[in-house]
Amino acid sequence: MEEKEISQAVIGRLPRYLRYLGELKDEGIERISSQELSDIMQTTASQIRQDLNTFGGFGQQGYGYNVSYLYDEIRKILGIDKEHRLVIIGAGHLGQALVNYTNFERRGFMFRGIFDCDPGICGKVIRGIRVRHMEEMADFIRENDIDIAVLTIPKTSAVEVAKKLADCGIKGIWNFAHVDLPVPKQIQVENVHLSDSLMKLSYNLSSSQEEGAADGKVDSNGQNR
Amino acid sequence: MEEKEISQAVIGRLPRYLRYLGELKDEGIERISSQELSDIMQTTASQIRQDLNTFGGFGQQGYGYNVSYLYDEIRKILGIDKEHRLVIIGAGHLGQALVNYTNFERRGFMFRGIFDCDPGICGKVIRGIRVRHMEEMADFIRENDIDIAVLTIPKTSAVEVAKKLADCGIKGIWNFAHVDLPVPKQIQVENVHLSDSLMKLSYNLSSSQEEGAADGKVDSNGQNR
DNA sequence: TAGATTGTTAATCGATTAACAATC
DNA sequence: TAGATTGTTAATCGATTAACAATC
After folding, report:
1. What is the number of alpha carbons within 13 Å of residue A203 lying toward its C-beta?
2. A212 vs B contacts (CB less than 8 Å)
3. A170 and A128, same structural domain?
């Protein structure tokens, strides 16, 4: 039953494929070749075929790929053909902003609870969801079959909360706290370290200035990594 | 004057080094060897030495690295020893959350303006900054020597706004809109595609479940990529 | 059938890890 | 000086690109 370990580089490109396929689908385009898609996405046809064949043969020789079919298959691979149930831990500005961002729900990521340790904010209702106290978190997660916890709390309390989450059987943590979480390895952690991202941008600003203004041709940029 | 093109993989690890070095510094630790640091950060001593030597020799044989000195040097490399001036484009939930997140300012990323196309929100003051109308954006950026624009607007208007930003000489775009921005290549774009990140997490959830619950040892996780 | 385009193997490129001589 | 640890070269590993036979 050994799966041959698919690289995170490939996984990281799937959402971008999905995005472009969705757009093609909306435009009513039924089929596309790896070459055409690579032109649009500014990548290589080879990479697209190689990436897709990691998961199976979704195309047809002489024809290309059926846009709608490929779209659905990538959704299945990513596991977003089924709903996920989320809780937000930390009802601060960022936590509230995420709850208010309706696109996640459109993709099947359903916010079911919001928790905070500040009694002052508990009881407040955000997009129909009442903020509960942290003490209720563990029971709520177990009783409501929650998949994913979104950590939007300061780094000082993040490690402690992550341990509690591990204890109540959470499967994944979407971590916005600026710290690495030491959790059992059956728990998946996806980090969004915003300040790291901003520092990378800062580096690229300085280094591009050193190079001395190059030619100014328009060039669509690729995915983040 | 040819610089030998430093890989984004290395750049992406620098903020994490900086974070751990900052912690060591706060603990009063003066020196550290690549081996000790790699133990703490769950990486290899080889990688740390290789990464640092991309930029120069910061250590000393037989001694290791001076924590405080290395910390400062990485700050310089990342270009965060100087202030950056930012504007937020899009005063929605996410835009407001970012303005309210004080840690960015602590690292020298100063929010100087907020813009929105909705006249209803213009005039509102967020953390001391008055929301201005989009029409004022171009002049404001030129007059206030703005480095970086943060795009927290829907994808539908992001491309158009990115073009305007290019015209008024912005240097970098921190892009939260779920779209690839076609801008001249002297403009640096750093994408934060939150839904892509969530989809990656979703994939890793499904794939880890297929593997069948493995052993449950604690294991600190590495940086995102 | 002939042309197009995939799936897949082989070649190349880049990034990580290992090894060790240089040196503090 | 002897021990420790870097800086750097060499070896390995993995990811990307190129090539082409299989096949629709």
Report:
1. 24
2. 1
3. yes
